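This protein record is not my work; I was only asked to verify it. Take the sequence as given and treat only the tokens as open to question. I have pasted the whole thing underneath without changing anything:
***
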Amino acid sequence: MLRSTRACLLLGTLAAFATGLAAGPAGAQPAAGHSGVPRRPVSTYSIVARDSTTGELGVAVQSHWFSVGSVVPWAASGSGAVATQSFTDPAYGALGLEMMRSGKSAPETLAGLVASDANEAVRQVGMVDAQGRTAVHTGASAIAEACDRTGPAFTVQANLMLKEGVCSAMVSAYTTSSGDLAERLMTTLEAAQEAGGDLRGKQSAALLVVARHPSGRPWEDRLYDLRVEDHPDPLVELRRVLTVARAYRHMNEGDEHVTAGEIDRALEEYRRAEELLPGRSEPIFWHAVTLASEGNVEEALPLFVRAYELHPAWRELVPRIVAVGLLPDDPELIDRILGTGR
């Protein structure tokens, strides 16, 4: 029943665009599926953006509300990105992405959804499409301090701020920061908090980045999908988790290089992961395994020692991975690996 209702809503909204029925808000009825007005606003400041170099699309948000990442950020490769906040209506995310995927621009999409929403006065929504076109809506009843700004392929929006100036700080941070899209989104959130942030305080945050082109495997298109659900300092925690995520991306890329027989490139990826997570044993252990499996035993043994010191149970794994071909079936080699550091 839920899927049927959603399908009918989507088809009806798209049909309205196709026939030009999505007129102005005067007398408009809320489209089926547009939720009623929630009792409280559930989010505060966010940014949606498209990276002009890579084409990646992303959303980042922070709020004094539990699990803001489960309702505000939406993004899909080849479609666009959406932040739906204030008195949140997830239909702006789900339908917005589908409409942009079908070829509607961000301004067309947002205009149509606002026109069909009887409660648009309490909504705050930012959108960017896959071509970098942007749209933002802050309803007349958004709780002060509320603001929004647009720039080249990005929008920022905020409500319930402690004081004025948050949107300006976000624009400045995004347009002057460097790094990949995830880094620039993270920096923008940190600037918003530094400028005063949410009047209510801090609780949760999220960061979502997707690839430019859909691969047909949506799970691979999500480059970063990070959430801090409940934390006294969610941006500090989100920054930490982003660092961990970067390290594991290097780990995954290293594994792919091993599979392709590109051992030097794999070892470089493992080294990068270790640099990001110097106190973690897993990057060290798999770096050691790769070296040992390629015959670089003397270089591998000190890494095994470090891994064992950080987490002794790695010794138990060594003989198990011989059986699946991750280490050579060489008893003398395995004895050396197990005996090192004792």
